[in-house]
Amino acid sequence: MKNRKRYYIAACAGCLALAVQAQTSYNAGTVMENQLNGTARFVGMGGAMSALGADISTMSTNPAGIGLYRSSDIAMTLGWYNPSSKSTFNNETHKDKVSKFSFDQLGFVYSSKLGNRTTLRYVNFGFSYRKANNFYDNFTMEGPVNGNSYSQNMAASLWASGVTADDFNNMLQEKNPYKNVNFGWLNVMGGLTGLLTGEGENDFYGWNSDRTYFRGENKGGIYAYDFNLSCNLNDRVYLGLTIGAYDVDFSRYSSFGENLYAEDDQGQYAASMLLENWYRTDGSGIDAKFGVIFRPFEYSPLRIGLAIHTPTWYNLRDVFSARMTMLGTEGQRITADTRNSGYDESYEYNLRTPWKFNISAGYTIGQSVALDAEYEYADYSSAKFSDPANYDMSANNQTIKEDLKGVSSFRMGVEAKLFEDISLRAGYNYIGALYDKNAYKFNDPIGTRTDIDFMNNYAAHNITLGLGLRFGSFYTDLAYVYTNQKADFHPYSNLIFDEPDPVAKVTRNNHRALLTLGYRF
């Protein structure tokens, strides 16, 4: 922790000297955190089908799985999404939830048989659209605090940057204070509204707070388009290649408020502050996946799968704006709005995600039972930002290296055929925590971003159930997923004080149901 504090102060002192340096590990984490999604059969088995194959969704985990098809297939999946959150902050609990229908998957496989005696038995082509990440979520926290406030965080940011109170007050007198590159926009807004004042030689004063509240609303998703080519060699070795294209559409509105108070010679007086942030990320990405499945023993149904996913190369754009409002006890209202800054509050940048490795094993017992288990690993601390104009983003990449870590995922699933046309499925899917327990976001005293809240998610546990029905060439699959995940939410960081952050303990539960309609021919 001490090393991280020194890095924070160094950053404040000037290593993030460009306003474009607004990207943090949390920007990267938004597009890299994983979710379980796909066809209802795939999801019902916990996403554990990389060695068994013969499902459209396996082209996103092990492309060789499409090589096991011996007939063509087309499928569509609809979903119902019901995430909820419960936050506990200073012994006060609040709940929030969303309920939404979604179009989760559409794909096909065209299977071409070349012969029974040739080495190359089948060549298959596939395409799949899937919702790789569903961002829809609401979150609320509220509770009492004991004096500590957002404005004190701003004051600490200015102290760390080395500016004086005179510098701060002179900046506020400028025609457009947002143009002053020595001051971050959050601190500018604090000064313009009176939330933060500079007095004396180098003193900055804020307000005390006795209650704080936060609400966040996320929307959008990451939409993946997979193009697959695979083949079957002697019914023993299966090879596959998937090219993936990604469309990113993420938007977030958040509001952070405080009940404030201060004291002077006439006694105590009160005010309130509301900070609203609008944030959007859009862009596109591309990657490739290579896979192989082989049967090591000719007369055994055991299958071993190996897959490598290249990094995803994203080109992204952030658009953000904010408004801060101070309300006095006599109804006076003072507002600062970054949309009046005269600047285009957007930034384009590139993100390279890490390599990903998957190993799996599958086994069938006659025609009645299928089992699959797999392990996947990616070192997210190796992700990298880059700037199209070649600005130095080494400080941003340092935050990724410190805040993110290697993530292990485990998946296991079973399918049992009860009758000729009825199957039951169950699975478990574990996704490790993306963020280090000490990860944080700070108020950059010279940055343009004004949202300094952050959520550190722990590991996600997915429990799945599924049902499959066959009607000749037609089939219907149903799946249910229960996801449980803990998290710590920080409205801001007190690291500069070397004091504990105000933290809400969060429990996130997500109930999902999926319906797949398909036809094999």
Describe what this molecule looks like in 3D.
This protein is mostly beta strands. It contains seven helices and 22 strands. The strands form two sheets. Strands 1-3-4-8-9-10-11-15-16-18-19-20-21-22 form a 14-stranded antiparallel β-barrel. A two-stranded antiparallel ribbon has the order 6-7. α1 (2-15) crosses α4. The protein is elongated, with a radius of gyration of 26 Å. The N and C termini lie far apart (60 Å). Residues 1-21 have low confidence and may be disordered.
Look at the structure and give the mean pLDDT.
90
| End-to-end gap | 60 Å
Any low-confidence stretches, pLDDT <50, length ≥5? 1-21
Summing up helix and strand content along with how strands pair, one would put the structural category as: mainly beta
Overall geometry comes to: elongated
The number of E-state strands comes to: 22
What's this entry about, in short?
This protein is mostly beta strands and 521 residues long. It has helices at 2-15, 25-32, 40-44, 150-161, 165-172, 185-193, 394-403, and strands at 73-89, 92-97, 100-113, 120-134, 137-147, 197-199, 203-205, 208-233, 237-264, 267-294, 303-309, 313-328, 333-337, 346-352, 356-365, 369-379, 384-386, 406-419, 422-431, 454-471, 474-490, 504-520.
Draw up the topology in text:
Layout: H1 2-15, H2 25-32, H3 40-44, E1 73-89, E2 92-97, E3 100-113, E4 120-134, E5 137-147, H4 150-161, H5 165-172, H6 185-193, E6 197-199, E7 203-205, E8 208-233, E9 237-264, E10 267-294, E11 303-309, E12 313-328, E13 333-337, E14 346-352, E15 356-365, E16 369-379, E17 384-386, H7 394-403, E18 406-419, E19 422-431, E20 454-471, E21 474-490, E22 504-520
Antiparallel strand pairs: 1-2, 1-3, 1-22, 3-4, 4-8, 5-8, 6-7, 8-9, 9-10, 10-11, 10-12, 11-15, 12-13, 12-14, 14-17, 15-16, 16-18, 18-19, 19-20, 20-21, 21-22
Helix pairs in contact: 1-4
